[in-house]
Amino acid sequence: MKWEDFVRTLNVVIGLSIAHLFQTFLQLDHEGWMYITIIVILAPADDVEKAFKKARHRAIGTSIGGLVSLVGYFILYKLHSVQFYYIVICTGFVLGIYNASKKYPYAATLTSMTIFMANYERAQVLEVAVWRLGNVLLGCLIAYGISFFSMKYFKHSKA
């Protein structure tokens, strides 16, 4: 195994361990999104910039998708407008898919995926959107921190 591969694997293991500690002590629901986020960001990242970019895109896409879902929830359950709900959700979903081919394809894809998943079961929109958003952002922070410290150290020890 090459040293770079070992460091990446170690980063993922450390990230998942930290995520597990957060989940254990904070009793988080839907913690799978935190684990997936850490793996998706850290496993393929061979330098700090790639990991930071992927973490930023994942946070942005999930935040936008979560926000659209929360707006949809408000429209459906507070304004009681099913038609307006579908217009908002479908517009957000379509814009996410359209922008998937543009400058931020990963973020746009995650926007649509979050909207779809949060609204799949309308009765749980609020819970799913909030937990997914929180878990993904926490996973991004963990991956970001690990990338910053370990990859920075790795670059210095490689020279």
UniProtKB/TrEMBL annotation:
<feature type="transmembrane region" description="Helical">
    <location>
        <begin position="129"/>
        <end position="149"/>
    </location>
</feature>
<dbReference type="GO" id="GO:0005886">
    <property type="term" value="C:plasma membrane"/>
</dbReference>
<protein>
    <submittedName>
        <fullName>Fusaric acid resistance family protein</fullName>
    </submittedName>
</protein>
<feature type="domain" description="Integral membrane bound transporter">
    <location>
        <begin position="19"/>
        <end position="143"/>
    </location>
</feature>
<dbReference type="Pfam" id="PF13515">
    <property type="entry name" value="FUSC_2"/>
</dbReference>
<feature type="transmembrane region" description="Helical">
    <location>
        <begin position="60"/>
        <end position="77"/>
    </location>
</feature>
<dbReference type="InterPro" id="IPR049453">
    <property type="entry name" value="Memb_transporter_dom"/>
</dbReference>
<keyword id="KW-1133">Transmembrane helix</keyword>
<keyword id="KW-0812">Transmembrane</keyword>
<keyword id="KW-1003">Cell membrane</keyword>
<comment type="similarity">
    <text>Belongs to the YccS/YhfK family.</text>
</comment>
<feature type="transmembrane region" description="Helical">
    <location>
        <begin position="83"/>
        <end position="99"/>
    </location>
</feature>
<keyword id="KW-0472">Membrane</keyword>
